[in-house]
Amino acid sequence: MTETPQPAAVIVLAAGQGTRMKSALPKILHPLGGKPMVGHALAAARELEPAQVAVVVRHERELVAEAVGQLDAGAILVDQDDIPGTGRAVQCALVALDAKAQAAVAAAGVADGEVVGDGVEGSVVVVAGDVPLLDGATLGQLLAAHHADGNAVTILTTEVADATGYGRIVREKDTGDVLQIVEHKDASPDQLEIHEINSSVYVFDAATLRRGLGGLDSRNAQGEVYLTDVVGFARAEGLHVRALLADDPMLVEGVNDRVALSVLGREMNRRIVEEWQRAGVTVQDPATTWIDVDVELAPDVTLLPNTQLKGATIVATGATIGPDTTLTDVEVGVGATVIRTHGSLAVIGEDASVGPFAYLRPGTNLGRKGKIGTFVETKNAEIGEGSKVPHLSYVGDATIGEHTNIGAASVTVNYDGVHKHRTVIGSHARTGADNMFVAPVTVGDGAYTAAGSVIRRDVPAGALGVTAGQQRNIDGWVARRRPGTAAADAAARTQRGVLGDQAQRQLAQQNAAGASVSPQAAADQAEPADQAPVAGAEKEGKTH
Questions:
Q1: 59 noted as active-site residue
Q2: Share of the chain above pLDDT 90, in %
Q3: pTM of the model
Q4: DSSP state letters, 33-94
Q5: 378: which strand partners?
Q6: Cα-flanking dihedrals φ and ψ of residue 290, to 5°?
């Protein structure tokens, strides 16, 4: 079995506006599975290992060019002029590809009398930038069929129940060869009954494509230059034009509006989730689990409901993610647990635990068996092996050593209004609850800090950092400063109960000694000397 030749070029059509999207963002830049639509087309194209990839741009040219440059730096950008239509787009691309090929031949040296040539030779694949489920494997089958049959043009088609809006494939009855592709608005009533449609994915012989494009015009209902007219040209030359029928219509389904974008987004995610399940990943609720195309998961990973893994997230074996968790470009170590957490550009170590309700911002690096607990936010923070930030804290621009415990409600005060500063807390340290670490500051190995402290100066290794003063209680303050309040009433009831107990104990002691003392006298004797009588009350009738 001979190997299929690599194509001379793949042309990606990305010049359209996509008016039905009703968006300032070009249609092909709307994302699915963590990539713009054109990114999926470029990825499929690269799987064919073509000599060149060209992307035709026009609408919002700078935005599209920037995105293409980030997605595929080796792609050639080609500008389509004012003449509309897919035929014109491919013509512009082929002119650019031919010029590049001729320049390469000339640079290699041309002998006297030798002709540089027309340009690219071999097969040219054309794909639309808005067909996100099309993969390299399907393109490979199309390319293989093209070469095996010796075709001038090979078209990828599919059958749908409702073909409204699609170009129809008109086949020769005896051979099954393609006679023509008729756009919906140009189709006759009989042709409108055809259910086999054009996917706008082709393989052309470069020479046939070059000649065919040279004779195109815009005499049709749309006033556009149709690439499909090259099929009629090839037939007129007596060349083979055939089609490969894709059994799965979703592979060639295009996006025209946001409804289709949502439908294909769900379908792409369903396929991604199912692929990971077959690779050994437990997905408890596929309907609420979303995984981007570039995510990597190891066997025995468990994903719980409402989990979203985005970007280049990597999850190692035995880790459990979710429920209610979103991770973007996060690396999760073996056996780690991440619960109800939002994280981006962070690293979670082996057997570490995060959440619930944690927020990991970029630059967070949690060591092996470390813990970031409930209502904790971290940013640009190195947290060492076995160290814990259990709850209600902010750790930003900080380095924490190994096996250190950060008390609840602690904050690394990293920003002075102009610059960010770093807090360093050593290994085996114990910091108290409600601590403020005013950076730049260092707490040494094995050091402690007292609860409620504001640490502004370095704490040496093994020392105790304390900034709180001695507690002082001002008795009777509520009664004097907040009279008539619920707090004052509650305090008075408690005080009455305490004095009553004191009076009962004194009476019991005196009875045991044989003395006869009235209960009221005992209560009077128990009253503190500095407590003034209530205004307007006789001593015999006052209450405590």
A1: no
A2: 79
A3: 0.86
A4: TTEEHHHHHHHHHHTT--SEEEEEE-TTHHHHHHHHHHH-TTPEEEE--SS-SHHHHHHHHH
A5: 360, 395
A6: -120, 130
